[in-house]
């Protein structure tokens, strides 16, 4: 075990993956010798050479197109998109190519070796273009898995799974926690299964669900609610797509209440998808409407960021409203 | 030689390969590094007033950049991005334009904006995201924009403004405005697909657009040569798309002025899109979030320091008797005082009212947005201390 922050945990996962197989490649804008603007790939060029960890020209559609080709050839491609907000030039490559490679070819070809890493989320005074949480756009696309970790331990285990998983994965890294979140992490290789939510804390009165950076906020809200005597069950979804319906619905069947929080705007967000499925599967057990605590339907703002964010007080209030319904 | 008429191409019977040496693109320089003119140079149209204005704007930007980097270090603003070393490229090119020409920038063209007349107060209000900011505090520092000055609001996603410039210029041509659009971007952004779409479409539609590439050697940490491109920079791409292309010394205000004046004439009078590649160097870090010591040497920086565009222009102006040390010092002191005063003033101006959160998503806030805002305000009333920047003015 070693104390690591989230970046170091990601770096450690990349390091182990590259050590394990010679055909694991890591690349993106500024990710070469410099180690990326957040330093997630630092030291990898020194260790594995500039043909295994390298800079790309500044072109996201190129990065993912290249990565699709490399993965289809049988290599492991770990592509970094510098900010989640800049993934959209690669939208076509991801939505129409990555996600459909296996299906359209009748499994003649696949890009299972592809992992797209990208920092996402707000709370860093980044305004419109360094703050967004684009998971819902991709969750609407069958054929690509979406994973996001909440802390260093989860980051390393989930990323190692993602890299060697037989399907392409969009791995969204909560950049607000890159350095802020630290914890004990095994130095050796370990994996955390994709598609499995994590019951972070058991409770009886209400289920509080989130993913990625929202987990830190959720835990703060839950602490406050527990002081009021509310017993909360906290779930980290971990894999957004395909999501763990079983774990979530089992919990709601027990508690009868559900609060979901996400950073992204409310309309068309993934919380809505979960709410729809849960009301379908747990309708007669629900004691109150499923609550979504999220951003509002505006572009991610700068000067009003604090007001905009789905913070712990908003989640706490939603828990109270649900309990008092 | 035989000719294939359909493709308007000569026929050869032995493989004839072309490579990057088939076309070599020279660099226009008028003002030498030592501050004197090349003797036989074609000169731009200029007079003392114009050159003094170019100089003063370059100096203004340099001082503004210095102060705002310091302000960021002090924690007064969250982010800043300087243009040190590239002031001639943005200022002298803007000086070659008509006020009615549209400017679309990337984010390192504060010089062009200042030349247009953006005031120090306007700069500050944007940098502090206060309620006087024309952009209503919604974007990160340096994302300026001003409709009155024909300066399109900056957007962070790279390259997006380049095809937009083609479209804007198409509209200008159809409306017979006698104006053009200049579009600035870095050599890094020129790798984006949008760049290629933009040049191709401009060439097809023959629109009055000037693509102005600031080749400053780096895209954050990525060196241009060999890692951003394998060819001879950006200029040959212009030829590939069939447009007039020129490479210039971007640290030579006269070369920038000359090339942009000619480009403007081609664009406006002949509807010829133009590509200018200005060779320069990003003397500062990429932004205040960056430390260049991790990827380049002091020696390399020193080499470019010797080519500094402001020093070079000042040398020439002093020899010419158009500038003296007193003016430089007085202007420096005056600008610094103005910048500091504006900084202190802007810092005190509150952020926009929370109601601004839902304005401008559409021309009018939707009912749903109004409801979302009301809910937010109810929440803020419960926890006014948490949202102290705006909770004092909820009604
Ligand atoms: C689409 C997109 N991808 C990545 C980024 C992150 N980014 C911001 S500036 C920059 C480098 C730009 O280099 P260049 O175009 O050469 O301009 P310079 O900073 O040198 O002026 C990068 C990669 C971005 N803003 N937009
Ligand atoms: Mg550059």
Topology:
The complex is a heterodimer of chains A (325) and B (395).
Chain A: E1 2-5, H1 6-20, E2 24-28, H2 44-48, E3 53-55, H3 60-72, E4 76-80, H4 91-97, H5 101-104, E5 114-120, H6 135-139, E6 145-147, H7 152-164, E7 169-174, E8 182-185, E9 198-201, E10 206-210, H8 214-227, E11 232-236, E12 239-241, H9 245-255, E13 258-265, H10 270-282, E14 291-295, H11 305-308, H12 312-323
Parallel strand pairs in A: 2-3, 2-4, 4-5, 5-7, 6-7, 10-11, 10-13, 13-14
Antiparallel strand pairs in A: 1-8, 6-12, 9-11
Helix pairs in contact in A: 1-7, 3-4, 8-12, 9-10
Chain B: E1 3-4, E2 9-10, E3 27-28, H1 48-73, H2 87-95, E4 102-104, H3 110-116, H4 120-127, E5 151-152, H5 161-174, E6 181-186, H6 193-205, E7 209-215, E8 218-219, E9 222-223, H7 224-228, H8 235-240, E10 244-249, H9 253-270, E11 274-279, H10 298-305, H11 309-320, H12 325-348, H13 367-382
Parallel strand pairs in B: 3-10, 4-5, 4-6, 6-7, 7-11, 10-11
Antiparallel strand pairs in B: 1-2, 8-9
Helix pairs in contact in B: 1-2, 1-3, 1-11, 1-12, 2-3, 2-9, 4-12, 5-6
Magnesium ion is lined by residues 186-188, 216, 218-219 of chain B.
